[in-house]
């Protein structure tokens, strides 16, 4: 399997893919190694993850360079991802002992009662390429802390990063049988689905997530799906600084080249400030520096996958055909690599694919609305339900609107962010289950009820 640098289209490495036989061998090893990992106890497991946390800092420069080379994200954003990943690990190891400890429910009387949290067993973590550290850590760290063994399949677009993760976990003391990387493309994922695993945890597209859920449904084991989004942002007419809000919205759209499930993909602006917002947004978008991701001046690198640029250009073409106007960008850049100009479109509506289909790129449509009622109707007009953002001076006004949205996360005067202390969950086509927060720790264990008499 060739690893391609999306900025240069050059082969940077070649990886031997797993076969069906090697995947089965890894499963057998994980099944044999998991009980010993569980009996190590939560404190021993925390100590290993603590060492992993330290190694990520020690090797941060090398890890960031690898991530930039295979994903195309600017080097500073790769460093940001590693720092963010360490922050999440810190939260998880600081809170794991509390949420994995046995709980006494009744301590007096003839029968005492308690809850004990036991590992699921051996789980599959089929992970994503856009934030391989962050989305991976959401799953494999709490899974390991909970006493599980993990068969970890990174995306084929983030395999080198996945190999670094495996190497550092083993160096930190996680047994080689307990965390094992499965390398490959779609076939490798299929072989994982055929195994008698105790849980499946996937991050990626709705189409693939639904396929996974259907294929493993008869096993009656936990299935957790972190899928896509078509995340809206609404700007109310009472904002104090339109330019500042435009800058925040722009970052929400283009950070990591828009390749994020919680990136802003559509913007609604109330009529009274619409023209001022559009002018400020477009002016700032035109100044973005697109180029070599290893250059410190670069704000946007190439798209990570070869076919994504063509998909985005098709969305733009559809919108223009239906009456949209392109204010800036929206074209492929004539150079090696999967580069394109960030696109700003206006005069958009929900007949356009741009406003309905997930984009996953630096493309956005900005639509005028007359009031909050129209805004919430349009924001809710989606099969996805991941995040939604509202900008306003009035929390009361914003909260009233946010309460009407069927999404796992809402933001007031911010967007495109994740906190380790809050559950990360999607509704509708955005997924099932959750990661992060204490609920994300408990997602990787199963409760056992004890009735104790005598």
Give a description of the structure.
- By secondary structure, this protein is an alpha/beta fold.
- The chain has 14 helices and 22 strands.
- It has helices at residues 20-39, 42-58, 60-71, 75-100, 132-145, 159-171, 186-194, 206-216, 242-254, 271-286, 308-321, 372-379, 395-402, 437-442, and strands at 2-5, 10-14, 103-106, 111-119, 122-126, 149-153, 179-181, 200-203, 223-226, 231-235, 264-270, 325-328, 343-346, 363-369, 384-385, 387-391, 409-412, 424-425, 427-428, 431-432, 434-435, 445-453.
- It has a 7-stranded mixed β-sheet, sandwiched between helices. It has a 6-stranded mixed β-sheet with strand order 7-6-5-8-9-20, with helices on both faces.
- Helix 6 links the parallel strand 6 (149-153) and strand 7.
- Helix 2 (42-58) packs antiparallel against helix 4, helix 3 packs antiparallel against helix 6 and helix 9 crosses helix 10 (271-286).
- The longest helix has 26 residues, at 75-100.
- It is globular, with a radius of gyration of 23 Å.
- The chain starts with a strand and ends with a strand.
- 52% of the residues are buried.
- The model has no long low-confidence stretch (mean pLDDT 98).
Element layout with pairings:
Blueprint (H helix, E strand, L loop, with lengths): L1 E4 L4 E5 L5 H20 L2 H17 L1 H12 L3 H26 L2 E4 L4 E9 L2 E5 L5 H14 L3 E5 L5 H13 L7 E3 L4 H9 L5 E4 L2 H11 L6 E4 L4 E5 L6 H13 L9 E7 H16 L21 H14 L3 E4 L14 E4 L16 E7 L2 H8 L4 E2 L1 E5 L3 H8 L6 E4 L11 E2 L1 E2 L2 E2 L1 E2 L1 H6 L2 E9 L1
